[in-house]
Amino acid sequence: MLVTVPGRDVLDAFELAGSPVVLAGGEGRSVRVGDVVLKPADGDLQAAEWLARTMACIPEEGFRISRPLHTADGAWIYHGWTASRYVPGAEPDHGAAPRWLEIIAAGRAFHRVLAGLPRPDFLDRRSNWWETGSKVAWQERGPDLIAGFHTPYMELSALLVSPPGEQPQLIHGDLTGNVLFAPGLAPAVIENPPTIWCCSGWVA
Fold first, then answer.
1. Which of 15, 65, 70, 158 is the most interior residue, by most CB within 10 Å?
2. Residue 85 and residue 55 in contact, taking contact as beta carbons nearer than 8 Å
3. What tens digit of pLDDT does each residue of 94-105 get?
4. What is the pTM of this model?
């Protein structure tokens, strides 16, 4: 795998000292410099900037997050890189000690903080498999079914209940594998690439 590391100009922009160390996970594209993690801002830059602004100011109530950092002149993205504080923690070993209920609780706490945030405009511009699946799952649109899937889809749809909330809100699109645990600390909810992080949904 070809690993790209940020240049000295990127480190200087975020006022970082030291040498980048490639982190495990994140497809090997994130690096750590001291207590800061740098990663590429792929895709929709407006989405990446929205994510950084939002995560920089929301309160941590029952969870931790990796606080985004801006450059010395206030930019959230510099030469294609974003920066955020490193949060200690690791994915749980569910085979040894399942922690799904704790992940659900962390997700609910996180979503309570997101409740009331307006829907970002960039969500309406997206068109990919993840967005289509999200909209179908949350009943924002119908599926384009291929032959042989109509009957199973109708059977599954019959099991659906009404959404538990009247107003859709932003949610984390993929909590599985994105909640980290560390002894004595609240669970850390980390974000995915914005292509799947934001979607419409309801929180119970």
1. 65
2. no
3. 999 999 999 999
4. 0.80
Residue whose entry in the numeric block shows the structure tokens 């940020």:
6
CA atoms of 95 and 79, how far apart (whole Å):
41
pLDDT tens digits, residue range 139-196? 777 888 888 898 998 888 888 766 545 667 788 878 888 999 999 999 999 875 443 3
The overall longest dimension of the chain from CA atoms, in Å, is 59
Secondary structure tally for the chain: helices H, strands E: 6, 9
Whether 118 and 184 have beta carbons less than 8 Å apart is answered as no
CATH fold for the domain made of 8-85: Phosphorylase Kinase; domain 1 (3.30.200)
What is the distance between the alpha carbons of residues 133 and 119, in angstroms, rounded to a whole number?
18
Structure tokens at 185: 């600390």
Q: Where are the domains of the chain?
A: 8-85, 100-201
60 closest CA partner among 123, 114, 135, 137 = 114
Q: CA-CA distances (angstroms) from residue 49 to 74, 102, 118, 142, 201?
A: 11, 29, 15, 30, 21
